[in-house]
Amino acid sequence: xxxxxxxxxxxxxxxxxxxxxxxxxxxxxxxxxxxxxxxxxxxxxxxxxxxxxxxxxxxxxxxxxxxxxxxxxxxxxxxxxxxxxxxxxxxxxxxxxxxxxxxxxxxxxxxxxxxxxxxxxxxxxxxxxxxxxxxxxxxxxxxxxxxxxxxxxxxxxxxxxx
Length: 162
Known about the structure:
By secondary structure, the chain is α+β, with helices and mostly antiparallel strands. It has helices spanning 57-62, 68-81, 110-124, and strands at 4-6, 11-15, 21-27, 31-37, 42-48, 90-95, 129-134, 140-145, 151-155, 158-161.
């Protein structure tokens, strides 16, 4: 029976169950990262809040999904564990918005730093980013259909395929 798997803030879900969907809500400066193996039909999603786990090693140990640098490797490894293969993975991302509405007022630039950290991790591991919907100042909802690999982003009342 198909399941809607909700990914909370600082959380991750993976699935190989046809008909399942994975969704996360309220992506502001956080990143929603999806990976999908179209051959094995395995996918997963991470909702990461902050770029680097080094700011709070205890929190990172308790919940690695809170951080891009510790959550992304866990997402990939979990997909590998259930049969996904690195060379086939399609990676998409949404979020990384300005927390304050515009870049001049966004002193910490968490959204931008989250995206930079993700790109560094992917580059270091020879993985390409397939598509993205990052930046701006609007919150987003991100969903992944496990059967098709389709990723949808909803923002400002409009839904589009990523």
